Amino acid sequence: MRAVVVASPGHVALQDIPAPLAAPGELLIQPVACGMCGTDLELIDGSIDPAYVRYPLVLGHEWVGRVLDGDGEPTGGPVAVEGIIPCGHCVECLIGATNRCETYDEIGFTRPGALAELISVPEGLVHYLLPSVSMLDAALVEPMAVVWRALVRTAIRPRSTCLVIGDGTVAMLAVHLLGRFDPTRISMLGVRPAQRELALRAGANEFLLEPSDQRFDVIIEAAGHAEAVTTALSSIARGGSITLLGLPPHGTQVSIVPDDFVNNDITLQGSFGYTRQPWSDVVALLNDGEVTPSFLVTHTFGIDDFNLAIETLRTPPPEAARGKVMMLLNT
Ligand SMILES: [Zn+2]
Ligand SMILES: [Zn+2]
Questions:
Q1: If I label 181, which of 29, 36, 155, 308 is the partner at 20 to 30 A Cα–Cα?
Q2: Distance of CA 93 from the midpoint of ligand 2 (Å)
Q3: pLDDT tens-digit series, residues 4-58
Q4: Which ligand is in closest contact with the Cα of 94?
Q5: d(CA 101, CA 151)
Q6: Does the pLDDT of residue 249 top 90, yes or no?
Q7: Separation of CA 272 and ligand 2 centre (Å)
Q8: How many domains in the chain?
Q9: Domain end: 270, 289, 306, which one?
Q10: b/e burial code for range 163-198 (CB count within 10 A of at least 16 → b)
Q11: Statement to judge: residues 42 and 112 lie in one domain
Q12: CA distance 106 to 100
């Protein structure tokens, strides 16, 4: 089968590789759409922490597909598959914190991803979507689950004022999903003016290019650099909560004013990955038609054009909005 393979850092190519077989307890799935994100660039470049990757690697961790029956024919509606594969028996798994499983194993990182004609996955990690859910909406389950988990963890009170820092897909999904928490107002602080329209469509009340002097009850940091974190720290209202979702380069430091945090009763936390519950929650939102995030897909490519997709991801066109870059497979 054909697959987009990173043989070693810096070497990515479309290759012919043996097709997977479904082992006992696994399902064979035909990927239909697969989003690409900044993490894929880190996997290609080799800038990711070596503990989180195993080369050679088939890319693809934000995807949707169809289950194949015994004759190899696609059946049923879209399926989304949890990427983090927990061991099920370590201390973290036993308390339900499968995102922190002591044995890190993830589709598209330490085992083959979905930028391929076929993939086999553990049956217990498959989520079934209704046939009424579009493939492009369903392809966003993975990043939505990451964001949803962070928002639930943030314990957002109704009528909160919210700030999302960043203007990439994760930030857009944060704005979109914050709408489920009955906020008074959602502001987005970005850097690319061309993202304004997407931000407003996602549900932002305003799109800022400079930090304002407003204070916010809830701040989601999804830009992933030191300045963004500093802005979050200085923009939080008394009693507010900051959740960090962005990943600045490893070792980045920012300074804080601890007494302000105590006096103002501030909560500051990070959120890593997801457990099964946010996947179920997000799939339910999609099945109920409560969210339709595919408006965020601004660029689509076939597998033969994977290099163009990578280039679009690496260098956003300055004049036009760039949301999710999506690969369409088996179409
Ligand atoms: Zn991703
Ligand atoms: Zn575990």
A1: 36
A2: 4
A3: 999 999 999 999 999 999 999 999 999 999 999 999 999 999 988 888 999 999 9
A4: 2
A5: 21
A6: no
A7: 15
A8: 2
A9: 270
A10: bbbbbbbbbbbbbbbbeebebeebbbbbebebbbeb
A11: yes
A12: 12
Same domain, 48 and 131: yes
Query: Are 233 and 318 members of one domain?
Result: no
Count of CA atoms in the C-beta half-sphere (13 A) of 242: 23
For residue 150, report the distance from its CA to the centre of ligand 2, in Å. 20
Angle at alpha carbon of residue 189, lines to 185 and 190, rounded to 5°: 140
| CA of residue 82 to ligand 2 center, whole Å | 15
Same domain, 132 and 157: no
Surface-to-core class of residue 323, CB atoms within 10 Å of its CB (0-12 exposed, 13-18 middle, 19+ buried): buried
* Residue type (1 letter), 13: A
> In the block, which residue shows the tokens 């974190």?
229
CATH for 254: 3.40.50.720
Q: What is the pLDDT of residues 298-315, one digit of tens each?
A: 999 999 999 999 999 999
Q: Considering every ligand atom shown, identify the ligand nearest to the alpha carbon of residue 103 and give its number.
A: 2
CB-based neighbours (< 5 A) of ligand 1, an ion: 37, 39, 62
What is the token pair recorded at 298?
A: 């601004």
Same domain assignment for residues 260 and 154 = yes
- 140 with 153, same domain: the answer is no
The CATH number of the domain holding residue 67 is 3.90.180.10
Domain that holds residue 318: 2-144+274-328
Ligand 2 mean position, distance from CA 96 (Å): 9
CA 48–ligand 2 middle distance (angstroms)? 22
Domain identity same for 170 and 39: no
Residues 236 and 109 in one domain: no
